[in-house]
Amino acid sequence: MDLGSLVAYYKLDDSSGTIVDSLNGYNSINASVSYGVGGKLGTAVSFSGVSDIITIGDHSVWTINAAEGYTMSTWSYYNGANINNYGHLFGYRYGSMFAFNTASAQLVWYNGTNLLTSNVLTGITTSTWYHFALTKDSSHIIFYYNGVNVGEQYETISTAVDPSIMTIGNNESNFVINGRIDEVGFWHKTLTPTDISTLYNNGSGKAYPFGTYTKDVVFPDTDVEGFVLELPRQFYSGNLKDILEDRFELVEIPNLSSKTKDILVDRFEIFESVLTAGA
To answer: Global pTM?
Structure first.
């Protein structure tokens, strides 16, 4: 999966206050939800179906042009029917939105002018987690339900050309979800069916950073050959140590000499403080 096109990712594991973007810091500016409820992966947030909302600031990265691909992905869980049937999942305040209609059992994309829908989804019940995703290329919207393509629609209208405030769970036009949302991601790329299937992961789900990313690396004239460590560029940050320990279970690097450490720091821009020599 191409993580380089991932713009924002909300695990929704927050216990109070700000809803944190795990990737680029596009955090919430307002959140009125119930925190810490049982999620698909970890915890989630719950929406009352009345006025609860997560509001994210106005950033240029939300700009979408007519010819540009993008993807929205989330896990959703319903307590009952949504107000006005449409439960906003992720999208633009007062404007374009990715939603689920509990009355018709269809996924929906509203682009400000047209309402595009998926096929009718079968097997939807309350108190169950479902994976919903939407992808767009230059001319099509594709809806996914639990990793499966459930409908395509032509979409050629320029969508949200100007950046706008994004929201989760409520678009402030009375389209509010009555239930829970977890693991919201937004990409500036049309993810492939294989990518969507990976996110669904046979019903188990995958959270950012979506698994272990490694590659064999050989360092000539050092004491380590075939050393394994290469991460996507967005991991080269101050929280790399946490990612290595929590996600990759890589706490110690055996037989790591100071020379090899220097190469890692210099060539891969990895902070020296996260590299620990093995016993």
So the answer is: 0.75
Strands of the sheet containing 86-92, edge to edge, are: 28-32, 53-58, 165-168, 86-92, 97-101, 106-110, 115-117
**Tokens read off for 214:** 């490694």
Q: Strand, coil or helix: what is 87? A: strand
Say which residue, 195 or 271, is predicted with more confidence.
195
Mean per-residue pLDDT for 27-46? 96
Element (H, E) at 130: strand 129-136
Reading phi first (left if > 0) and then psi (alpha if -120 to 50, else beta), residue 74 is in: beta
**Phi/psi at 222 (5° precision):** -125, 175
Q: Provide the β-strand partners of residue 107.
A: 100
Give the whole-angstrom CA distance, residue 173 versus residue 178: 15
Helical spans, DSSP H, in the chain: 193-200, 240-246, 258-268
